[in-house]
Write a structure and sequence with these properties.
The complex is a heterodimer of chains A (313) and B (517). By secondary structure, chain A is mainly α. Chain A has a single domain, classed as ABC transporter involved in vitamin B12 uptake, BtuC (Orthogonal Bundle). Chain A contains 14 helices and two strands; from the N terminus they run αααααααββααααααα. In chain A, strands 1-2 form a two-stranded antiparallel ribbon. In chain A, strand 1 and strand 2 form a beta hairpin. The longest helix of chain A is centred in the C-terminal third of the chain and has 27 residues. Chain A starts with a helix and ends with a helix. Chain B has 517 residues and is of the alpha/beta class. Helices cover 33% and strands 25% of the residues of chain B. Chain B contains 19 helices and 24 strands. In chain B, the strands form six sheets. A six-stranded mixed sheet of chain B has the order 6-9-10-3-11-12, with helices on both faces. In chain B, strands 18-21-22-15-23-24 form a six-stranded mixed sheet, with helices on both faces. Chain B has a four-stranded antiparallel sheet with strand order 2-1-4-5, with helices on one face. The chains are: A mainly alpha (313), B alpha/beta (517). At the A-B interface, helix 9 and helix 10 of A face helix 3 and strand 8 of B. The structure holds adenosine-5'-triphosphate and magnesium ion (MG). The site of adenosine-5'-triphosphate has 18 residues of chain B, from strand 2, helix 2 and helix 15.
Chain lengths: 313, 517
């Protein structure tokens, strides 16, 4: 490997390198950072929320946005708790909840396609409605109706790995494959890059738009179920602001807000990066107010790095 | 009517098509039948309805009434997808590639080769098949480049390959050659002939009337949305065609005005850019119309962009009216009075959602404002003046500019640039895709600028055009200005030969230019 190769690799994987450097620094400065236990802890803490970022990646690459995901998370937790309370077994209640989440996505997509309402607006409206719906079905209070074993879905371990982390990695692999290798994935990039060109090439633009929202809605429901399992109740006031955290991770991962550009891998790195920074700051006893400022700066830094990379190309 | 057509219905025909847009009837009762193995040319001036017909045949828009029939059976195309499935592929007038995808991915967009039982895109096969297809078409273009890196002509080539990749039964070409130089056009014609020989229905739209005798077996003329006339290729003469297209109008050759002075307004010395301009030196005098000829990829567009300060200039210098420009940038060149009328008017020249008036004022916002507040009266006057002087065909300056025909959109771009009161105007393919009449009006604008003492540089792939309107023609090869000719007594053939002198073996693309260096 010569100097030019090294330069090319650093230019291509700046974020990955910065992530590794951050980990090295933290392993020296922060006590216990490098312990297996702590790293699993990072993975567990990012995984429930991180699921949203993968769906959001597809949505943003398709040239859309989804602001309703956080309400979807809260509602899913409440819905599954409500169904359980009503005597419906979880084996039925969980798929029903996921399907409901997907159908909200389908709704957003249909509104986008049929009435040409920008998704920023329709999902903003949906965000409010779903939040209200969650409050309505719970009456404003947590429903704690789950059997004990349900906790595994949010806090359990399989072969030493947290269950949510397994789901997180599986979803990553599936969506990365879909976006990189399948006809549908290519269609998502095409629709986000130039919708008219996609339409004239025989791509079913409406289907693509509806599907990305449906997938995101389903993932939000899965995230909501895992969250309710962790706290063992359906609570309407959880997940506040998660939609913006998801968008932040996608942007940090190098996806362009203009559509048509981005990778699921980048989002994974973005999610882990933000998780590591938060974990590191907590270990170093940085106050939560300072943490917020740092996270904001992180987004600026990532966007700046991206620009730099684009210029070099 | 020939008796054969009674026995066997044509593979593709339109029956009484009508299409209405707000304020315009784009098509009125148009019935045309297309025969297998025949190249059917469709002509008509800007706004005659040609593209609308293509869009209906490909399912991109829906007719108000009337039907499309294939082999005598009425068919409905609710989407482009449906038309593609029936074997109808098109190259649309407006370029539409996905910028972030590669050439190969764009060529097979919507139907990529797959593996694992259709589950995954076969990227390798996509690349190979696209490379094979381009090679078969006689084109040299790297299929792994991204579409956003391509020039207009290269994009057009990719669009053609994209349509070809469908192995269509009917191929509709809406001005596929508007950005191509003669070399590539000849290649395309050979291809069209071969396809027609295989029984493919070909519909070919062009504004270059001289192409008709080369390629057309049958010619349909649209005027104001109606089928005005139909000829066979042999019956068509320049007069009959012009008569059918315009009613009475006949284009006349005028030649450039005699207004060149000795005063040099623009000079470049050894200009270098990373986009492929090398050591380019030229001078332009007040009142002069300087043509710049060259093959595709010879660096003409890149040279104009460098002079206008759009692309980064890495070496050499530019002098305007005797003053060397220190830091060449869009702002400094604009301030020195140099403006560019860009090649791709859709992408770089206009804001489609804004109105005609807004677009006219876009490049000169300051001149109609006082302390940042727009003076509405002065602005309205400036717009009215532009519309009058350039004969922009619009009834409502508040209508979106995208509702104008191609030629009038181009005039809007030019009007916007002229309102900035330039010393030098750089025109990059200003007549691409516009009809003979509008073309003459643009030449009139050029002549008018010349009499005003403004220097113009004109890049065009239509050599006849350069010979008609320019005082002097510089010839570019491989990023350099290598030669110069005086139009008087030069034939298009001779000019083409001088353009090709070195690059004969490698006619296409920036790639080949880089290899030569
Ligand atoms: N989307 C639209 N909205 C409103 N009017 C339109 C639209 N598309 C086309 N038109 C109008 O319909 C008429 C026919 O347009 P069309 O694009 O078919 O012309 P054309 O013959 O292809 O012209 P050109 O030679 O400039 O390409 C024009 O008057 C045009 O302004
Ligand atoms: Mg047209």
């Amino acid at each position: 490997m010569n100097w030019r190769d090294i330069k090319a690799i650093t230019a291509k994987s700046t974020l990955e390198i910065v992530l590794v450097l951050t980990c090295i620094i933290l392993s020296v400065t922060a006590p216990h950072f490098l312990s297996i236990e702590n790293l699993l802890n990072v993975l567990r803490s990012v995984s429930v929320q991180g699921l949203l970022a993968f769906g959001m990646t597809m949505v943003i690459i398709a040239g859309e946005i989804d602001l309703s995901v956080a309400s979807s998370v809260a509602l899913a937790g409440c819905l599954v708790a409500y169904l359980t309370q009503a005597g419906i077994p979880l084996a039925l209640g969980i798929p029903m909840t996921v399907l409901t989440g997907a159908s909200f996505g389908v709704f957003t997509g249909v509104v986008r396609v049929k009435w040409e309402v920008p998704s920023f607006i329709s999902t903003l409206a949906l965000y409010l409605s779903l939040k209200g719906l969650a409050l309505l079905i719970t009456g404003g209070f947590p429903i704690a109706s789950f059997p004990d074993w349900y906790h595994i879905l949010g806090g359990g371990y399989v072969l030493g790995v947290p269950f949510p982390a397994l789901i997180f990695l599986a979803v990553f692999a599936a969506i990365a494959f879909v976006m990189k290798r399948t006809v549908f994935g290519q269609a998502v990039y095409a629709v986000g890059g130039n919708a008219e060109a996609a339409r004239l090439s025989g791509i079913n633009v409406a289907f693509v738009r509806i599907m990305v929202f449906a997938i995101t809605g389903a993932l939000a429901a899965v995230s909501g179920i895992m969250l309710s399992a962790r706290i063992m109740s359906g609570t309407p006031t959880v997940a506040v602001g998660w939609e913006l955290d998801a968008i932040a991770a996608v942007i940090v991962g190098g996806t362009s807000f203009a559509g048509g550009i981005g990778t699921v891998w980048g989002t994974l790195v973005g999610v882990v990066f933000i998780g590591v920074i938060i974990n590191g700051m907590t270990l170093l006893d940085v106050s939560s107010s300072h943490q917020f400022v740092m996270r904001g700066m992180l987004i600026f830094a990532a966007v700046w790095l991206n620009r730099l990379q684009e210029k070099r190309k | 009517m020939n008796p054969g057509s009674m026995a066997e219905p044509p593979p593709l025909e339109t029956l009484g098509l009508c299409k209405q847009y707000p304020g315009v009837r784009a098509l009125k009762d148009v019935s045309i039948s297309f025969r297998a193995g025949e190249v059917h040319a469709l002509i008509g001036k800007n706004g005659a309805g040609k593209s609308t017909l293509v869009k209906i045949l490909t399912g991109a828009v829906q007719p108000a009434s009337g039907t499309v029939a294939m082999a005598g059976v009425p068919v409905a195309f609710p989407s482009p997808r449906a038309a593609l499935r029936r074997g109808i592929a098109a190259v649309h007038q407006e370029l539409s590639l996905v910028p972030e995808l590669t050439v190969a991915e764009n060529v097979f967009l919507g139907h990529p080769p797959t593996k694992w039982a259709g589950l995954a895109v076969d990227a390798q096969k996509t690349t190979h098949m696209a490379a094979d297809l381009l090679a078969e078409m006689g084109l040299h273009l790297s299929v792994t480049r991204k579409a956003r890196e391509l020039g207009v002509a290269e994009q057009q080539v990719v669009e053609i390959a994209k349509a070809m990749s469908r192995h269509p039964k009917a191929l509709l070409l809406d001005e596929p050659t508007s950005a191509l130089a003669r070399e590539e056009v000849d290649g395309l014609f050979a291809l069209i002939r071969r396809l027609a020989g295989q029984g493919v229905v070909i519909l070919y739209i062009t504004h270059r009337l001289q192409e008709l005798q080369q390629i057309a077996d049958r010619i349909s003329v649209l005027r104001n949305g109606e089928l005005a006339a139909q000829f066979t290729g042999d019956e068509a003469s320049a007069e009959r065609i012009a008569q059918a297209m315009f009613g009475e109008f006949m284009p006349v050759r005028v030649g450039p005005p005699e207004t060149v002075t000795d005063e040099v307004i623009l000079e470049t010395r050894n200009l270098q850019t990373e986009t492929g301009v090398r050591d380019a030196s030229l001078t332009l005098r007040r009142g002069e119309i300087l043509g710049i000829a060259g093959l595709l990829g010879s660096g003409r567009t890149e040279l104009l962009r460098a002079i206008a300060g759009v692309d980064f200039v890495s070496g050499g210098d530019i002098t305007v009216a005797g003053r060397v420009i220190k830091r060449v940038s869009l702002a400094t060149m604009r301030k020195a009075g140099v403006v560019l009328v860009p090649e791709d008017r859709q992408a770089e020249g206009l804001v489609p959602a804004l109105s005609v008036g807004d677009n006219i004022c876009l490049a000169s916002l300051r001149s109609n404002a006082c302390g940042g507040v727009i003076l509405r009266k002065r602005r309205a006057e400036a717009i009215a003046r532009s519309v009058r002087e350039l004969a922009i065909g619009t009834t409502d300056v508040d209508a979106p500019v995208s509702s104008l025909s191609g030629g009038n959109q181009q005039k809007v771009v030019i009007a916007g640039r002229l309102n900035a009161r330039p010393q030098v105007v750089l025109f990059d393919e200003p007549t691409r895709g516009i009809d003979v009449q509008a073309k003459q009006q643009i030449f009139d604008i050029l002549r008018h600028l010349s009499r005003e003492g403004i220097g113009s540089a004109l890049v065009s792939s239509e050599l006849e055009e350069l010979l008609e309107v320019c005082h002097r023609i510089a010839i570019m090869r491989g990023g350099r200005i290598e030669d110069e000719v005086i139009p008087a007594g030069t034939s298009p053939r001779a000019l083409l030969e001088r353009c090709m002198r070195i690059e004969k073996a490698a006619p296409l693309g920036k790639d080949t230019v880089n290899e030569l260096a």
